[in-house]
Every structure is written in structure tokens, then in C-alpha cells.
Amino acid sequence: MRAAEQEAIAAGTPGFTLMRRAAAAVAREAAAMAPHGARVAVLCGPGNNGGDGFVAAALLREAGYAVSVHLLGEAGRLKGDAAEAARLWAGPVEGPALPPAALLVDALFGIGLNRAPEGAAAAAIAAMNAHGAPILAVDVPSGLDADTGTAPGVAVQAARTVTFHTAKPGHLLLPGRDLCGALVVADIGLPETPGRLFRNATALWGPHWPRPRGHSHKYTRGACLVWSGPSLATGAARLSAMTALRAGAGIVTLAGDHAALTEHAAHVTAPLLRVAEMPAELLADPRLTACLIGPGAGVNPATLARVEQLLACDRALVLDADALTVLAGRPEALRRPHPTVLTPHEGEFRTLFGPLPGPKHERALAAARASGSVVILKGADTVIAAPDGRAAINDNAPPWLATAGSGDVLAGLVAGLLAQGMPAFEAACAAVFLHGAASTEAGPHLTAEDLPAALWPVLKRLYEAP
Ligand SMILES: NC(=O)C1=CN([C@@H]2O[C@H](COP(=O)(O)OP(=O)(O)OC[C@H]3O[C@@H](n4cnc5c(N)ncnc54)[C@H](OP(=O)(O)O)[C@@H]3O)[C@@H](O)[C@H]2O)[C@@H](O)CC1
Ligand SMILES: [K+]
């Protein structure tokens, strides 16, 4: 953000012009939140976030709102663009105590927050939260660290946050995403800056989406092997297999012992069923393009032996659940010269990689580098990280996706896309995004069994997009 701002300024756009554009977006959002003419209280801080607040206040007053401006600190100590902004505000500048108002604009701290708010700053944030009016946060809810999504102390709970140019990690990672309320990203005319950290969206992986052609047959669409758990633990692999088929893999094989396959046979029709003791018995088939192991597998020496056999093969591989736990503390064992995707939740992640420091996307990146694998670190704010340094934060998962079996569906989705030759990072990002979109499609009270069906309309819409 700072680099984009510097580049724009160097190219001839004054910083104050950027501030005016930012403030115009703030005023636009405020007008959408408060009835025309209503009282709006704007709380400004000592830096340029406060500057945005001053300019927005002037614009809102011009538009007919009854605006009061409150400053934390002394007007005489404002510098640069913020000082210029304060001069634009012709009305009185009051202390931080807030009057009754229909809307509060939080322009206290933005991306310049550098420590936990204390004293008067903490009190001002607490007073905003206790006020009762909805809060529109400028750039970042004050107190939230835009780089990490964490709050070092007290933070504003906004109803809406308007940020500029692009979402920051703190808007997407929890608890930051919840503190933001609805997120609006406003264009302020900054140049595109090359980056390696993304918000997960169709544009990130759409160009790699595998589209079957007229001459496709089931084996050219990719063949996927899903290793089953034993009898009475087969449901997880079944969910994965059905989702891999739905994702477009031409053929999916469920493999395991006879008793397990008997259970599968009672439930599914499309997947092939193969009795096998070890994956190597099936890897001789050259048409097989991707394998998945872990759902329902069990944490035991047999699972470890099967995982090691699959790691040694030359197919794309997804390791989930128990297949990750059996490799506790040995991420280097995952290094292989073929596409590999790991799908740990926080507990499995810690077991495999140990405690890593830093925000979620940095921990996922460190794990991706340590394992040479694409890591999907699951949660309500799932992060996808690649060993080459790319990472994406996903924010489209509804809370009702937290249900038994949804992880098995995700693993199957990744495997189905890998089977079709999609590159690992893109396949992982697509799977996480579509998983969230399918849960939104299915709606509250979904069960994991609903997800493969809910994926169908979501996938069909992908093909309708230009
Ligand atoms: N970049 C861009 O392209 C654009 C940026 N724009 C806007 O500028 C904002 C960034 O402005 P910024 O850099 O001045 O930082 P900002 O968030 O105002 O905070 C710094 C001030 O807060 C203080 N302070 C910090 N923590 C504190 C604490 N815990 N408790 C108490 N004080 C604390 C800190 O004080 P100090 O550390 O010096 O004591 C300093 O005075 C950005 O979020 C966006 O709104 C737009 O106008 C358009 C284009
Ligand atoms: K703010």
C-alpha cells in the first residue's frame, strides 16, 4: 500500500489528491448508512487516517449532514496532508467525547497503528463501541493491525469498513474480518502493485480451470484414487470420492479392504471399487493422475506405510487428516518433485509443523517452504500457501460450513482438480473458493452430504462467466 502510494505520488498525483479520493469514498459510504441530514460524528486521530476523516466530514457537511468533528490529540500537532485536511474543515474541532449521532465515523487509526491503544486512545475506542450508533471505519477499524488481522488491545467493532485500493490481510483474517463488518474496497486510482499475497477470487485460478474438450473421454479427464478408511470409517472417503467426481475427474476409484468396499457398494454407484492392501497395487495403472489419502484413514502404522508409498509415486497427491498426523514433526518427508497439497486444520498443522510464529498467512508460507507442498491451512479464514511464496486468503466461507465431513469434501475437491492437471496452488485456491461458494449455495443447516450437489450450480455458473 505504501509502495503504491509512493509510486502514484512520484508519477505526479499529490498525496492530498489520494486523501480526497479516499475521503470521497468514506462520505459515499456514510451517506449510504445514515439518512440524509442526520447527525454524523467523525472521530479523527493524529495521522493521515484522521486526515481522511476531516475531508470526509467536510464533504458530508456540504452534502447536508449535521457533522461534528472530534480530535484525539492537538490540532496544532497535525502534519502534512492531515494538517491540510484539518484546514479544509471550517467548523469547530471538539474533544473526543461523542454526542448523540446516527452514525460514527472512525478515523482514529488506520494502517499506521503501531502499538496497542492505551489511555485516551483506548478510552475513545471503547466509547465508540459503547455509543450505540453504527460505526463506519475508515480504512481499518481502529485498533486492528492491518497486517495480521489481530488486535493488540481494544479495537473498534465496525458495521462497515471502507478501505482503499485493495483489501489488506487484516480485513480478511480473523478476528479482523469480524471487526470490519461489511468490507468495501474503494478505488483511489493507485497503480497496480505486483504482490504475492492475494484475496482468493475466481480471477486467481480461473485461467487454469480444466475445461473438457469435445474429444475428451473419461480417462483424458483424469483418474483419481481415493484411499478408504476401514469398515465403519468409510463415510469420509466416500464424501471425498463423490466430490472428486463432481469436480470433473473422469473416473474415481475408492480403494481399501473388502469390508470397507462392501460399505461403499451399499452407497455409491459411479465410483469404481478396488480391493487392495497397499496403494502400490493400483499405481501400476498409468491412467491414474491423482491420489488422496487421509479421510477416515486412522492414525496407525498401516496408514503411515501407505502414505510413504504414495509420497514415493509420481502422481499428484492430496494428504488430509490422519495422513498428516502420521507424519507428525516430519514436514521434510513431504518433499517430492510432484504436485502435493496438504489440508491441515490448526491442530493437524501444529502436529505436523510445530508451533510457528506470525500471522496465519506467514505460518502457512513457512509450512509450504518446509514441506515443499501447497498448504491449505483451514479455518473460517482459510489460507492457501505455495512453496514459491504465493499465498491467498479466503473469505467466502459461511459459518455453517463448520460441520462434520466438510473437510473430506474439500480434500476430494482438490484431488478432483489435480486429477485434471490443474496446477497445485490454483487447484487448492479453486477448491477452497468453490467449497465456500457451495456452502453459501446450500445455505444454513447444510450437511457435508449436501455439498457435492450444491457444487453443481456453482460449477455451472463458472462456465457461464465470460
Ligand atoms: N497509504 C495510502 O496510500 C493512503 C493512505 N490514506 C490514509 O492514511 C492512513 C495511514 O496514515 P498514517 O500513515 O499517517 O497512519 P495512521 O493510521 O493515521 O496512524 C498513525 C498515527 O497514529 C499514531 N498511533 C499509531 N498507533 C497508535 C496507538 N496505539 N496509540 C496512539 N497513537 C497511535 C501515530 O503516532 P506515533 O506513533 O507517531 O506516536 C501516528 O500519529 C491510511 O490508513 C488511510 O486512512 C489515504 O489518505 C489515502 C492513501
Ligand atoms: K480507522
Overall description:
InterPro entries: Carbohydrate_kinase_pred_CS, CARKD, Nnr, Ribokinase-like, YjeF_N_dom, YjeF_N_dom_sf. This is Bifunctional NAD(P)H-hydrate repair enzyme. It catalyses: (6R)-NADHX = (6S)-NADHX; (6R)-NADPHX = (6S)-NADPHX; (6S)-NADHX + ADP = AMP + phosphate + NADH + H(+); (6S)-NADPHX + ADP = AMP + phosphate + NADPH + H(+). Helix 5 (119-131) links the parallel strand 4 (103-107) and strand 5 (135-138). 39% of the residues lie in helices and 16% in strands. The chain has 466 residues and is α/β, with parallel strands linked by helices. It contains 18 helices and 17 strands. The chain has two domains: 2-194, YjeF N-terminal domain (Rossmann fold, 3-Layer(aba) Sandwich), CATH 3.40.50; 202-464, UDP-N-acetylmuramoyl-L-alanine:D-glutamate ligase. Bound molecules: ligand NPW and potassium ion. Ligand NPW binds next to helix 1, helix 2 and helix 3.
Show the helix and strand layout.
Layout: H1 2-10, H2 15-33, E1 39-44, H3 48-62, E2 66-71, H4 80-88, E3 93-94, E4 103-107, H5 119-131, E5 135-138, E6 160-164, H6 169-172, H7 176-180, E7 182-186, E8 197-199, H8 202-205, E9 223-227, H9 235-246, E10 251-256, H10 258-265, E11 272-275, H11 280-283, E12 288-293, H12 301-311, E13 316-320, H13 322-325, E14 340-343, H14 346-353, H15 360-371, E15 374-377, E16 383-385, E17 391-393, H16 406-419, H17 424-442, H18 451-464
Parallel strand pairs: 1-2, 1-4, 2-3, 4-5, 5-6, 6-7, 8-17, 9-10, 9-12, 10-11, 12-13, 13-14, 14-15
Antiparallel strand pairs: 15-16, 16-17
Helix pairs in contact: 2-3, 3-4, 9-16, 9-18, 16-17, 17-18
Bound molecules: ligand NPW and potassium ion.
